[in-house]
């Protein structure tokens, strides 16, 4: 999420106050999607009002896992640990919209329709965005393997 944790906490609190005070709420099939989209919109609005030149790209869904957490997950398999570190590194090289789509699809487990709602894009566009992100991840990781093989050979 956005690096300013206090701003995010304020937005979460504002969201629930707004929901509590609201007399009319939109009808929704999935509350989780509704809340994520509402929070994202609040963050964008807050950033716009705080500083006009604020980089809206910073309002993204970042996957942050430290090395100790990865080590705990893959205690007995160094190869999987190294692969997960490479994947995380490649993930951070993706454009913001692709990182958001990957995060929502594979970390939050949302269907494409809900991803489309959160990102304000068409459902087919959410599918395409995830596929482009996966293709780019594969490409980045393959390139890193080639570079590593080249460095080892020399």
One letter per element, helices H and strands E, the order comes to HHHHHHH
- The overall pLDDT average reads 78
Spans where pLDDT lies below 50 across 5 or more residues: none
Structural class: mainly alpha
Largest sheet: none
Helix content: over 70%
Distance between the termini: 41 Å
- Shape from CA axes? elongated
Total DSSP helices: 7
Estimated radius of gyration: 19 Å
Please tally the β strands and state the result.
0
Q: Indicate the proportion of strand residues.
A: under 5%
What does it look like?
This protein starts with a helix and ends with a helix. It contains 7 helices and no strands. The mean pLDDT is about 80. With about 150 residues, it is an all-alpha fold. It has helices at about 5-20, 30-50, 65-75, 80-90, 95-105, 110-120, 125-154. The chain is elongated. Helix 1 crosses helix 2 and helix 4 (about 80-90) packs across helix 7 (about 125-154).
Brief overview, please?
The chain is mainly alpha-helical and 154 residues long. The chain contains seven helices and no strands.
Features of this protein?
154 residues; mainly alpha; 7 helices; elongated
């Amino acid at each position: 999420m956005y690096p300013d944790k206090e701003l995010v906490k304020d937005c979460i609190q504002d969201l629930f106050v707004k929901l509590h005070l609201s007399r009319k709420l939109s009808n929704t099939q999935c509350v989780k999607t509704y809340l994520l989209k509402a929070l994202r919109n609040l963050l964008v609005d807050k950033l716009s009002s705080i500083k006009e030149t604020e980089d809206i790209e910073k309002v993204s869904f970042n996957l942050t896992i430290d090395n100790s957490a990865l080590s705990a997950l893959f205690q007995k398999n160094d190869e999987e640990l190294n692969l997960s570190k490479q994947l995380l590194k490649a993930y951070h090289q993706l454009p913001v919209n692709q990182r958001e789509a990957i995060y929502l699809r594979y970390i939050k487990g949302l269907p494409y329709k809900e991803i489309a709602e959160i990102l304000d894009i068409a459902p087919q566009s959410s599918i395409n965005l995830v596929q482009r992100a996966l293709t780019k991840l594969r490409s980045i990781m393959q390139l890193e393997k080639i570079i590593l093989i080249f460095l080892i050979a020399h």
